[in-house]
Structure formats: structure tokens, C-alpha cells
Design a protein that fits this description.
Layout lengths: L1 H13 L12 H4 L18 H11 L1 H5 L1 H16 L4 H21 L7 H14 L3 H14 L4 H13 L3 H14 L4 H12 L1
């Protein structure tokens, strides 16, 4: 299970927006996997009003107001991923991530541009909590909202493959390739799934 979660995390990171620059001592800026806007969210370290307006224009002022919860969810998710010794702490971190993903999903519009990304990341956290059916629903919802969102196909197919559903995984990768035929990662995942 840990390998699956690590693989999903790697997949989702590979599709992440630009990441924060390190060099500051704040928790937000020190986390290299956080999107570049995290230091400018409500509890970020660099809440520059000009940057807040900039990201409010991109993501919507109301939605950006809640994005510190998304950043916190990412921190909690990766803290859970890094926790090797204490299963209770690890599960608590993933639970915290899910709660913060839900916070943002509940307070943003259905057409919020980052909704598919948040759903896919929530799905990865749910897998870590052994809540596979809920994770599948998140991946499928991300695909429904944005049919060309490659990370959701990769994550769903990876989960299906590890759950022993090679046929489902192949169908998922093929469906993704119908939408994004030049996706190298989907092409590679399909070849891997066909080898199983």
C-alpha cells in the first residue's frame, strides 16, 4: 500500500504547478512540493498584497481565500508519506489531508479550475487510508470534470492495477489516451498494464 501511495504522490507531483522557491525558513516556502502560490495564501509566509491580487485573479478571489487549506492538505499528505514508524500518526496526517481537501472542495464552485487536481490528490490520500472505493469516486469525478486530466487516469489505473483489476486499468489508460493521445505517461502505463 505504501508503494502505491508513493507512486500516486510521484505521479501527482509530476503534474503539479510550479513549486515554491526554497530559501525561506517558513514551513510554506521550505516545502518544495507546494505550488508557488502557497506562500501568498492566508497563512503563508509571504502574503504580498500584489501577489494575493494576482492569484485571486487567476483562481478567483473567493476560491483563493480558501487555498491555504489546500496547501495545508499537501503538507499533511507528504508528512503522512514520510512517516515510517507510527501508523497512527501516518493515518492522522492522511486524514488531515482529506479534511483540508474537503474544506476547499466544499467552499469552491464546481467549475473551480483546480477541482480535478484537488480530487485526484484527495483520492491518493484516501488510498493511503484504505478507502479505495472513495478514491475511485474522486478520480472518476476529476475525469468527469476535466476529461483531459491525465493524473486522474494515471492514479485510477494505478489503483486498479494494484487491486488486481488489470482489465480495468487498461481500459482507464485507453480512455485517457482517447482524450490525450500524445500523453507519454499514459502510453507507458498502458504498456505496463498490458504486460501484467
Amino acid at each position: 500500500m505504501r508503494a502505491l501511495v508513493a507512486a500516486l504522490a510521484g505521479c501527482l507531483l509530476s503534474f503539479a504547478p510550479a513549486v515554491a522557491q526554497s530559501g525561506s525558513s517558513s514551513k510554506w516556502a521550505d516545502a518544495p512540493y507546494l505550488p508557488e502560490y502557497c506562500p501568498h495564501t492566508q497563512y503563508g509566509s509571504s502574503r504580498d498584497p500584489e501577489m494575493v491580487r494576482h492569484y485571486g485573479t487567476i483562481y478567483g478571489e473567493k476560491a483563493f481565500h480558501h487555498m491555504h487549506h489546500y496547501c495545508r492538505a499537501l503538507v499533511a499528505f507528504f508528512e503522512g508519506l514520510q512517516e515510517r514508524d507510527n501508523e497512527t500518526i501516518r493515518r492522522s496526517k492522511y486524514g488531515e489531508a482529506v479534511a483540508n481537501f474537503d474544506y476547499v472542495l466544499d467552499r469552491t464552485e464546481p467549475e473551480f479550475i483546480l477541482r480535478p487536481e484537488i480530487l485526484a490528490r484527495k483520492g491518493a490520500a484516501l488510498i493511503a487510508l484504505d478507502r479505495g472505493p472513495e478514491a475511485v469516486a474522486c478520480f472518476e469525478e476529476a475525469i468527469r470534470i476535466r476529461p483531459d486530466y491525465v493524473p486522474a487516469y494515471v492514479s485510477l489505473g494505478g489503483y486498479q492495477l494494484r487491486a488486481g483489476d488489470g482489465e480495468g486499468a487498461r481500459a482507464t489508460y485507453q480512455s485517457g489516451l482517447e482524450r490525450v493521445p500524445d500523453s507519454e505517461i499514459l502510453q507507458r502505463k498502458l504498456v505496463e498494464a498490458e504486460a501484467n
